[in-house]
């Protein structure tokens, strides 16, 4: 266990490396070194986290990290060159799922220590927001992966009342969040039911958000989901009050929005058009 | 403490907006992939969710959630950086051969 100040300094160092890494990734000559710098930043952040507390459950951390590293490395090595974008979508979905699980675990801690009623409304809302963004990113990315790899039909899937279903999901999510945080003392609903409902609704929202979009537009959607997974990490940073998650998540979240916009422009499309028109099967763009 | 974190969030968001300006089209996918790897930073949150917060004897549900979170986030980190490097390496060799 090392001192808190030292840990914070190391987090700052890794944030700086992420910034340089992102900057260099936008430049053809420096992109590969940029990625290396960013990976070094990640290594520093992980090592700092490992030494920052008296780790009691090290065997579980080791198990998760070794298994995850093996799966990630195999997937990255074995994937065909042409299948890389959908692999990125899948990785991105796992990142979203991890943020969801971090928030869930923190909520579970509130309930077991009995501090649930003492936690501020804002903190509880952040838990719900993290679960929402993380869950929607997870399933949205899985659908994007399915569409690109043609495990799902890459045509836009549309049905009557689609917008209504999306609005209904959002309304239910807002309702669950209100019952969960500000009204928790007045309404007699088990908070765990609300958390599970939020997880399910968020996952449904991710699916219903991406299925009406055609396979040809998936790169833009993956870029947007990538931005969301950054925001999920950022929100998880607020849940556990950790600087490096907030900084790195915000960097990915905002730079992801800019990149999504650039990608839309290079296709001569508007983002709203990509997301809500149901076009983008590659052939039907004349009306867009 | 809370206000400080919001301050950090806003500054980092603006930095992210400014960081990406003109990106050549062939770098769109590697940039997306590289920044996706950075979003795996949630692995730090996952590690911390398992570190130092348990009373003696541990706590089953949180161990399961935390271990799964570490697992998923590590896939994101390791896979993300490696696949980005692979993309960029093809890109580099193509440039050299021309």
Concise account of the structure shown:
The complex is a heterodimer of chains A (288) and B (98). Chain A has 288 residues and is an all-alpha fold.
Characterization of this structure:
The complex is a heterodimer of chains A (288) and B (98). By secondary structure, chain A is mainly alpha-helical. Chain A folds into two domains: 1-78; 82-287, no CATH class. In chain A, 74% of the residues lie in helices and 0% in strands. Chain A contains ten helices and no strands. The model of chain A is unreliable at 280-288 (pLDDT under 50). With 98 residues, chain B is mainly alpha-helical. Chain B has one domain (24-97). Classes of the chains: A mainly alpha (288), B mainly alpha (98). Chains A and B meet through α1, α2, α3, α4 and α8 of A and α1, α2, α3 and α4 of B.
Radius of gyration of chain B over all CA atoms, rounded: 19 Å
Spatial gap, N to C terminus of chain A: 57 Å
Structural class of chain B: mainly alpha
- SS elements, strand count of chain A: 0
Number of structural units classed as domains of chain A: 2
> What fraction, in percent, of the residue positions of chain A are helical?
over 70%
Structural class of chain A: mainly alpha
Summarize the main sheet of chain A. Answer: none
What is the residue-averaged pLDDT of chain B? 86
Tally of discrete structural domains of chain B: 1
Globular, elongated, flat, extended or rod-shaped: what is the shape of chain B?
flat
């Amino acid at each position: 266990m090392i001192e808190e100040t030292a840990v914070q300094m190391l987090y700052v160092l890794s944030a700086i490396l992420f910034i340089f890494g992102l900057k260099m990734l936008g430049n053809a000559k420096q992109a590969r070194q940029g990625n290396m710098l960013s990976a070094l930043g990640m290594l520093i952040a992980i090592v700092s986290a490992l030494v920052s507390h008296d780790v009691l459950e090290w065997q579980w951390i080791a198990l998760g990290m070794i298994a995850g590293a093996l799966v990630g490395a195999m997937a990255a090595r074995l994937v065909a060159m042409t299948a890389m974008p959908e692999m990125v979508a899948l990785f991105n979905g796992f990142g979203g799922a991890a943020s969801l699980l971090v928030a869930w675990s923190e909520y579970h801690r509130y309930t077991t220590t009995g501090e649930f009623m003492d936690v501020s409304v804002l903190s509880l809302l952040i838990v719900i927001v993290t679960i929402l963004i993380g869950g929607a990113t997870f399933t949205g990315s899985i659908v994007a992966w399915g569409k690109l790899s043609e495990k799902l039909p890459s045509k836009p899937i549309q049905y009557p009342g689609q917008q209504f279903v999306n609005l209904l999901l959002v309304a239910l999510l807002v309702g669950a969040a209100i019952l969960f945080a500000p009204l928790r003392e007045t309404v007699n609903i088990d908070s765990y039911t609300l958390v599970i409902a939020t997880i399910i609704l968020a996952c449904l929202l991710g699916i219903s958000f991406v299925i009406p979009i055609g396979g040809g537009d998936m790169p833009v959607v993956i870029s947007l989901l990538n931005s969301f997974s950054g925001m999920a990490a950022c929100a998880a940073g607020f849940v556990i009050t950790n600087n490096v998650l907030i900084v790195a998540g915000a960097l990915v979240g905002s730079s992801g929005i800019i990149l999504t916009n650039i990608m839309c422009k290079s296709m001569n499309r508007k983002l709203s058009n990509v997301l809500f028109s149901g076009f983008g099967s590659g052939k039907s763009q004349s009306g867009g | 403490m809370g206000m400080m974190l919001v301050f950090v969030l806003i500054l980092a968001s603006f930095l992210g907006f400014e960081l990406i300006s003109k990106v050549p089209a062939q770098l769109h996918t590697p940039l997306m992939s590289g920044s996706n790897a950075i979003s795996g930073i949630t692995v730090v949150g996952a590690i911390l969710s398992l570190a130092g917060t348990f009373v003696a004897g541990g706590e089953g549900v949180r161990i399961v959630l935390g271990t799964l979170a570490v697992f998923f986030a590590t896939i994101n980190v390791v896979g993300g950086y490696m696949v980005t490097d692979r993309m960029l390496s093809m890109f580099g060799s193509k440039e050299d051969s021309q």
